[in-house]
Design goal:
alpha/beta, about 400 residues, four-stranded mixed beta sheet, binds pyridoxine-5'-phosphate, Collagenase (Catalytic Domain), 2 domains
Length: about 400
């Protein structure tokens, strides 16, 4: 693992999300063209930092960051020429980082990013203490990297869109008029959901045409209509004009959508659907497995969004398997984001497994149905939505 992070300490008020920090450090290393090399980062407190500072620099008290390059670069022997794959160690005092952030009026995550960049530049041989010229060069490089990072980050928080199909499933079980997904959608919005998702299935097993038409008039946030790429569905979408159409594969016998779309195998048909919906100004999202090739082809044929299928991550039976699936989602979301696609994710997300996905900066919206509606049966829809929103917001505020 190129970036190895250990935490000897955590700040109670600013819990650090190690995985997110690792990805950030990796992002900066990639921009510095040392992404293949190894760096160890230790997060500690002022007490331990003071002892390192005294032991290695003969200075009293804590400091914000210490860097220990494995090799010292010199002018005649620049670091990049060294045939080694380890840059060295960075030690950061979280206590000092927080104090500085408060003094400078900077968000704590920004300060931590700055310390990582500062430490990395030291490892690469830059040193602001060698004179004004070098201090300026180092400052410029830090600013450049931090500005690029801010551009890279999505500038909006991950949204929660609630799928209300399951409310319609209960209604259809009795063939009566309640519970009504229209009422449920309004309640989800009142609780803070930023979008409503409905899947109009060919067999109309839950959502009915009447729901689609009424919801178009009542949804105040965004209407995401999931559907198969059939002629019938495209005609309905062209009439209703949802804010987004998500194309999904649909098999009659399945309990729920079982896998991602095979965009590669059905390239022509899906491209045609995107074009037909696009003529009415409807953006299209393709529900795909976390597969780089499916994502590249989705981009090639003009999708605006992809929705990354999180089902295998959610259903994983071992930690290793879940880790593997999670990494596929991270890579797929990054690839889509880099290509300029907008990225949603969903399927199987619940109160335990959503936080890690919500923490990904590349993902714009999570589409969640079953877990929230199930919980609503016990605690009410308002509370179930709010609890999920809390999980998403906390995941994003953790660093
Ligand atoms: N996204 C898509 C494309 C889906 O088909 C579904 C299931 O209807 C979801 C998200 C939501 O999945 P879940 O109900 O498991 O949260």
């Amino acid at each position: 693992m190129p970036v190895d992070i250990s935490a000897h300490y955590t700040l109670p008020s600013y819990p650090v999300n190690i995985e997110k920090l690792r990805r950030r450090a990796q992002w900066f290393m990639d921009r510095l063209e040392v992404g293949e090399q190894t760096v160890s980062i230790l997060l500690t407190d002022d007490a331990e930092m003071s002892s390192f500072n005294s032991q290695y620099r003969g200075k009293e008290g804590p400091t914000n960051v210490l860097s220990f390059p494995l090799f010292e670069a010199t002018e005649e022997f620049p670091f990049s020429d060294l045939p080694i794959d380890e840059l060295g160690d960075i030690i950061i005092s979280l206590d000092t980082a927080l104090r500085e952030a408060l003094e400078l009026g900077q968000p704590f995550p920004y300060r931590l990013n700055w310390l990582i960049v500062h430490g990395l530049l030291h490892l690469l041989g830059m040193d602001h203490e060698r004179g004004e010229q070098e201090a300026l060069e180092m400052y410029d490089k830090e600013q450049e990297l931090l500005t690029r990072f801010e551009h890279y980050r999505r500038n909006q928080m991950t949204h929660l869109a609630i799928n209300v199909d399951h409310i319609a499933t209960i209604r259809q079980a009795r063939g009566t008029t309640e519970p009504d997904p229209v009422t449920a959608a309004a309640m989800c919005e009142l609780a803070g959901a930023e979008g409503i998702v409905i899947h109009l299935r060919e067999d109309r097993r839950h959502i009915q045409d009447r729901d689609v038409h009424i919801l178009r008039k009542t949804i105040k946030t965004k209407m995401n209509l999931e559907m198969g790429a059939t002629e019938e569905m495209i005609a309905i979408a062209q009439e209703v004009i949802p804010d987004l159409v998500t194309l999904v594969p649909e098999k009659r016998q399945e309990l729920t959508t079982e896998g991602g779309l095979d965009v590669i195998g059905q390239k022509q048909k899906i491209a045609e659907a995107i074009k037909n919906l696009g003529e009415k100004g409807i953006p299209v999202s393709l529900f795909v497995d976390p597969d780089l090739e499916q994502i590249r082809v989705s981009h090639e044929i003009g999708a605006t969004f992809v929705e990354i299928h999180t089902g295998r991550y959610c259903d994983a039976e071992t930690e290793d398997e879940q880790e593997q699936e999670y990494n596929l989602i991270v890579d797929a979301a990054n690839e889509a984001y880099q290509l300029g696609l907008r990225v949603n994710a969903g399927h199987g997300l619940d109160y335990r497994n959503t936080a890690r996905i919500a923490a990904l900066e590349t993902i714009e919206e999570l589409s969640i149905g079953h877990s929230v509606i199930s919980r609503a049966a016990y605690v009410g829809i308002d509370q179930a939505v709010r609890e999920m929103l809390d999980i998403i917001r906390q995941a994003q505020n953790s660093l």
